[in-house]
Design brief:
Blueprint lengths: L3 E5 L24 H12 L3 E6 L4 H18 L3 E6 L21 H6 L9 E5 L2 E2 L2 H13 L5 E8 L10 E8 L5 E12 L4 E3 L2 E3 L4 E9 L3 H15 L10 H10 L4 E7 L4 E2 L6 H14 L12
Parallel strand pairs: 1-2, 1-4, 2-3, 6-12
Antiparallel strand pairs: 4-11, 5-13, 6-11, 7-8, 7-11, 8-9, 9-10
Helix pairs in contact: 1-4
Length: about 300
């Protein structure tokens, strides 16, 4: 059974400032965060990569990563495709609300791949670094899951995901004794403190498990997404700003007893590009990984 990695790269990131943050170089040879994710995915056995982008960034995307990664993946026997997220990609019977400019969210990004995906798949954000352990855990789960309603989520330690540059939003998870997800509480304005973390004046346990939008999903999940998107469109609170998000949808399916979600805890440090000021810290982290031998200076050379 082959496995696919879906990389959601359609967002520009308003807090990041000018430029496409997913394409910002962070490695000594111009590597971007996606390069490391792709390396780690291929290393553990993912056989297909699907990028979700927008048509208006296609040219720059292909120039910076697409054509280069296609060559690397071709030499390693890994298939590469692009899917395009578009505001007007809606089910029959629905029209784009007048004035809507905000993307429909991460579930909609995954739906952009519905005509391409033919295997169990993982989803990640393009501008996040997840670490090697998470890819290994998720890939192994996808290879061994036996039921169509079995999902997995990489669970990160909250203190390993905070930004030095400002507040962040994290899905704080409740997990039972068997490692199954009970619910995800979307928590905004989480800031790093001397004691750990705080959100809107409330202290949080820095050892809490949080979701960073890395899920392992069965092929059949796509059907649930299609049905869920129609229901979302029919019930959304605000036609201009409401988003169809993976953690919220998974929460709903958990509540309805339709899925079981295994939380795969990882102690790797997460790096992200939430703020422009995060960039230098991310660059230094990758320099340190190269010094320690976690990655080769010639990133993909160890896979050949």
């Amino acid at each position: 059974m082959k496995t696919t990695l879906v990389i959601m790269a359609a967002g520009l990131g308003s807090r990041f400032g000018e430029g496409i943050k997913q394409l910002t170089p962070v490695g000594e040879r111009g590597e971007i965060i996606m390069d490391y994710s792709i390396h780690d995915a291929i290393e553990v056995g993912f056989e297909r990569i699907i990028f979700v982008i927008r048509r208006d960034i296609e040219k720059e995307f292909r120039e910076v990563i697409g054509e280069r990664i296609e060559k690397v993946c071709a030499s390693l026997g890994v298939q590469v495709d692009c899917a395009f997220q578009a505001l007007d990609d809606l089910p029959d019977g629905f029209a784009l609300p007048e004035g809507r400019t905000k993307p429909w969210g991460t579930c909609h990004a995954v739906l952009a791949c519905r005509d391409l995906i033919d295997s169990p798949f993982a989803v990640i954000n393009a501008d996040d670094y997840y670490g090697k352990e998470a890819f290994k855990l998720v890939h192994n789960f996808l290879k061994t899951a036996e039921a169509d309603n079995e999902l997995c989520m990489a669970g990160y330690i909250l203190k390993n995901t905070l930004s030095e540059s400002g507040g962040v939003t994290r899905g704080v998870c409740k997990v039972d004794a068997s490692g199954r997800l009970k619910r995800i509480d979307e928590t905004r304005h989480i800031e790093k403190t001397a004691e750990g973390a705080r959100a809107d004046g409330v202290d949080l346990d820095p050892e809490s498990i949080v979701s960073m939008n890395m899920f392992g999903l069965p092929l059949q999940f796509m059907e649930a997404l299609e049905k869920g998107f129609e229901e979302f469109l029919g019930q959304m609170a605000d036609p201009l700003t409401s988003e169809f998000l993976i953690p919220i949808f998974v929460n709903r399916m958990l509540t309805e007893g339709k899925v079981s979600v295994k939380v795969l805890e990882t102690h790797d440090k997460w790096f992200g590009m939430t703020y422009k000021e995060d960039t230098e810290g991310v660059r230094e982290a990758f320099r340190e990984y190269v010094r320690k031998g976690v990655y080769s200076p010639d990133l993909f050379s160890d896979l050949k």
